[in-house]
Amino acid sequence: MRIAVMAKVALCACPDYNPDNVASAVDRAVTLCGGMERFVRPGQCVLLKPNMLSAAPLERRVTTDPAVVRAVGKLVLKAGGRIIIGDSPAIDKVSRISRVNGIKEVAVELGADLIEFCRPTLVKTPRGSIYHALELEETVLNADVVIGSGAYGTFTVTHDITQYTRAKIFSEIGKKTELFARFSTVAGERGAADAERDIRGFALKFYTEEGNWDMVGNNTPVFFLRDPLKFPDLNHVVHRDPRTNLRSAKNNWDFWTSLPEALHQVTVVMSDRGIPASFRNMHGFGSHTFSFINAKNERYWCKFHFRTQQGIKNLTDKEAEAVIGKCRESNQRDLYYSIENGEFPRWTMFVQIMTEEEATKLPYNPFDLTKVWYKKDFPLIEVGFFELNKNPENYFAEVEQSAFNPASVVPGISFSPDKMLQGRLFSYGDTQRYRLGVNHHLIPVNKARCPFHSYHRDGQMRVDGNYGSTLGYQPNSYGEWQEQPDFSEPPLALSGAATHWNAREDDSDYYTQPGKLFRLMSKEKQEVLFGNTARAMDDAPEMIKIRHIGNCLKADPAYGEGVAKALGISLDKVPK
Question: pTM here?
Answer without folding.
Answer: 0.74
